[in-house]
């Protein structure tokens, strides 16, 4: 896998290390990025399920009133 070098503020990285409970800055930032991506996928899955349910409701013919 290709590697990317990114410069970050030291205080930001230390905060991430503390929150992630990891002693290595590289590992801490990688965990945060992976978690962010996983949350995005879970949100997409929930949204897709909800949108599909709404589409199913909208497709059903409506009864004419009156």
Q: How would the blueprint of this fold be written?
A:
Blueprint: H1 10-20, H2 25-59
Helix pairs in contact: 1-2
Question: What proportion of the residues is helical, as a percent range?
Answer: 55-70%
Low-confidence stretches: none
Q: What's the number of helices?
A: 2
What structural class do you assign from the helix and strand content? mainly alpha
Order of helices and strands: HH
The rough form would be described as rod-shaped
Notes on the protein architecture:
By secondary structure, the protein is mainly α. The chain has one domain (10-57). The protein has two helices and no strands. The longest helix has 35 residues, at 25-59. The protein starts with 9 loop residues before the first helix and ends in a 7-residue tail after the last helix. The model has no long low-confidence stretch (mean pLDDT 83).
Summarize the structure.
With about 70 residues, this protein is mainly alpha-helical.
Question: Which features does this protein show?
Answer:
66 residues; mainly alpha
């Amino acid at each position: 896998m290709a590697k990317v070098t990114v410069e970050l503020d030291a205080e930001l990285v230390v905060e991430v290390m503390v929150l992630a409970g990891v002693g290595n800055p590289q590992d801490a930032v990688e965990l945060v990025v992976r978690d962010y991506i996983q949350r995005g996928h879970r949100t997409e899955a929930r949204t897709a399920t909800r949108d599909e349910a709404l589409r199913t409701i909208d497709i059903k013919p409506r009864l004419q009133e009156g």
